[in-house]
Write a structure and sequence with these properties.
Blueprint: E1 4-11, H1 16-20, E2 25-28, E3 37-45, E4 52-59, E5 71-76, E6 87-97, H2 105-124
């Protein structure tokens, strides 16, 4: 997979991730050019210079019937804090799985925990992104192809 860069502002979501034990930064983005799914990713907050490991869900949360729009939800590994209004850049490293509905919330929690383990393993084999020209907008990060 060629790494894809997504930039957006952290906005309020439904709060489900936090309630399930996997808080997420929900990004408002103008458009997406990648398929729905769960991805291993690197994320950088505008106020920071270093990249953090993350697991990102892109899709309409099919386990819940009330979500009709595509969402970008980023669980930043080992992070706690208030990010509302912050700019964040995500670099998708690899697809963990396609989006799917789980039979119940317990299955979703179990599946998400497994996704995080796979994400950590994938990121341990993939170095953080190298700088990408700001003028390029959404661009492929060199070295992550």
């Amino acid at each position: 997979m060629q790494a894809l860069r997504i930039t957006g502002t952290v906005v309020h979501g439904d709060g489900r991730g936090h309630g399930l034990g996997f808080p997420t930064a929900n990004l408002q983005v103008s458009e997406l050019s990648c398929p729905d799914g769960v991805y291993a990713a690197w994320v950088r907050l505008a106020a920071e210079s270093s990249w953090r490991e993350a697991t990102v869900s892109i899709g309409d949360n099919p386990t819940f019937d009330d979500v009709t729009d595509t969402r970008v939800e980023c669980h930043i590994h080992d992070f706690s804090g208030d990010l509302y209004g912050a700019m964040a850049t995500i670099v998708l490293v690899g697809l963990i799985r396609e989006m799917r509905a789980f039979g119940d919330v317990a299955g979703l929690i179990e599946g998400t925990a497994a996704d995080l383990l796979i994400s950590r393993r994938m990121l341990s084999a993939s170095p953080p992104p190298t700088p990408c020209a700001e003028s390029a907008g959404d661009c492929v990060e060199p070295g992550l192809e």
